[in-house]
């Protein structure tokens, strides 16, 4: 019985094998056609994959180079999409900002123009951020605080040498790894802050002149640091010579007016006792130092490239602006450095000239006795007005001209908003490490929460 079953199974198997063989022979041409088609297409794809790096050993320089090239191309593929998204957002912003039907057409066009200008700056800033991220992803940029802090270690200055003091001061003033919350814990930072706000005897001017010298001796100076210097200098002027001086003037006016209609404002009034040299040094220095720093901008470099690994720092003129021969340690002279700051400095010189006219007007009023209820009005001349400069009237006029000039510096405060200054000035935030090298800003990572 068992033998008969076994023989039957063998017969069925042989019949099936013969049937499959017949079917295979029947469909063999189709299979060959499909195989050749797949082989042809796969050959094209395999060639592309081979060019991309497939088939290479998982270690070695060729594999690493192919991997970095692929990562870089991945960032480049997103550029058209980013451009379309930014354009769409710009149009939406313009429509939302001008959606008021009662808005005059002149104002509507002005708003659209402002959005265009800001969006151009924002687009440049965004592309710079993506370029930095791409270089960081392919290993060409240092991406840790320790790596950035170690830049310049091989040429670290000797203890207590001039370069050591430069590195010490710049790290306390503009550290690359601390925010304002970290800086306020440093007593040296508070000492420098007080010096930057003290207007007496020209101390504020001398302090900022010292800081500018430290920045410029970087050879070349960093573009962001010069921009930040100008904004910080004008911001301190607005606070110290503007807000603080105005408050002091209000208190002095209150104290110098006595009951019964008498006063001693010619002795105790605002600016009456202030040394003329001190007042003029603060007034003139606030304009001169700003423009000295501005003239260094075309010669500046972009030290955000100082974290490039294995490559030379990129030329500072790579932004595509008008370029001429180099200067002060830089290979190029780029007039586009500073972004929108150029127009703002035009406002600064206008404000300074208006302040000079304001001071001359106040001295003319006193010299010609134009104050109501005072002496009889008389004619005056330029020589008589200059004589009043050394009297209390001239001291007071210069005091109020300084306050007037400082108040007109308020637009610079807008550029001090974190993030906005980088967008409008086309610069990347940088700071100084303990070796005196200017590197991109990067905060220390958050410590782990032990309670979790």
Number of strands: 4
Radius of gyration: 35 Å
- Average of pLDDT: 75
Query: Fraction of residues in helices?
Result: 55-70%
What structural category do the secondary elements indicate?
A: mainly alpha
Helix-strand pattern: HHHHHHHHHHHHEEHHHHHEE
Low-confidence stretches: 305-325
User: End-to-end distance, in Å?
Assistant: 75 Å
Number of separate helices: 17
Strand line-up in the sheet with most strands: 1-2
The main pleated sheet reads as: 2 strands, antiparallel
* Share of residues in strands: under 5%
Q: If you had to describe this structure to a student in words, what would you say it looks like?
A:
This protein is 64% helix and 4% strand. The chain has 17 helices and four strands. Mean pLDDT is 75; it is low at 305-325. Strand 1 (323-327) and strand 2 form a beta hairpin. It is mostly helical and 452 residues long. The termini are far apart.
């Amino acid at each position: 019985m068992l033998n008969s079953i076994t023989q039957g199974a063998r017969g069925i198997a042989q019949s099936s094998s013969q049937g499959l063989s017949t079917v295979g022979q029947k469909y063999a041409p189709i299979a060959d056609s499909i195989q050749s088609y797949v082989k042809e297409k796969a050959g094209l794809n395999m060639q592309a994959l081979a060019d991309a790096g497939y088939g290479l050993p998982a270690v070695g320089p060729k594999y690493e180079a192919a991997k970095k090239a692929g990562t870089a191309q991945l960032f480049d593929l997103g550029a058209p999409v980013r451009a379309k998204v930014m354009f769409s957002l710009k149009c939406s912003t313009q429509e939302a900002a001008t959606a008021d039907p009662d808005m005059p057409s002149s104002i509507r066009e002005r708003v659209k123009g402002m959005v265009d200008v800001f969006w151009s700056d924002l687009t440049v800033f965004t592309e710079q951020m993506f370029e930095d991220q791409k270089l960081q992803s392919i290993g060409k940029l240092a991406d840790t605080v320790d790596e950035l802090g170690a830049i310049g270690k091989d040429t670290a200055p000797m203890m207590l040498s001039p370069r050591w003091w430069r590195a010490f001061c710049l790290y306390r003033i503009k550290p690359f790894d601390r925010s304002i919350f970290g800086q306020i814990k440093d007593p040296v930072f508070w000492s420098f802050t007080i010096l930057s706000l003290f207007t007496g005897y020209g101390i504020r001017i001398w302090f900022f002149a010292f800081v500018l010298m430290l920045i410029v001796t970087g050879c070349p100076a960093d573009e962001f640091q010069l921009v930040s210097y100008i904004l910080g200098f004008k911001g301190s002027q607005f606070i110290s010579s503007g807000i603080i001086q105005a408050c002091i003037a209000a208190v002095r006016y209150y104290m110098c007016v006595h009951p019964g209609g008498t006063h001693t404002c010619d002795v105790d009034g605002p600016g009456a006792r202030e040394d003329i040299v001190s007042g003029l040094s603060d007034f003139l220095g606030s304009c001169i130092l700003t423009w000295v720093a501005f003239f260094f901008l075309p010669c500046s470099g972009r030290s955000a490239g100082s974290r490039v690994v294995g490559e030379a720092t990129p030329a500072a003129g790579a932004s595509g602006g008008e370029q001429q021969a180099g200067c002060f340690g830089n290979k190029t002279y780029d007039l586009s450095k500073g972004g929108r700051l150029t127009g703002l400095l035009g406002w600064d010189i206008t404000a300074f000239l208006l302040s000079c006219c304001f001071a001359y007007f106040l001295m003319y009023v006193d010299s010609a006795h134009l104050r109501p209820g005072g002496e009889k009005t008389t004619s005056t001349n330029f020589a008589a007005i200059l004589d009043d400069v050394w009297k209390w009237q001239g001291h007071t006029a210069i005091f109020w001209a300084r306050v007037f000039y400082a108040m007109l510096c308020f637009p610079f405060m807008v550029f001090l908003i974190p993030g906005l200054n980088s967008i409008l000035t086309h610069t990347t935030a940088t700071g100084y490490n303990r070796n005196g090298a200017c590197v991109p800003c990067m905060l220390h990572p958050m410590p782990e929460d032990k309670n979790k």
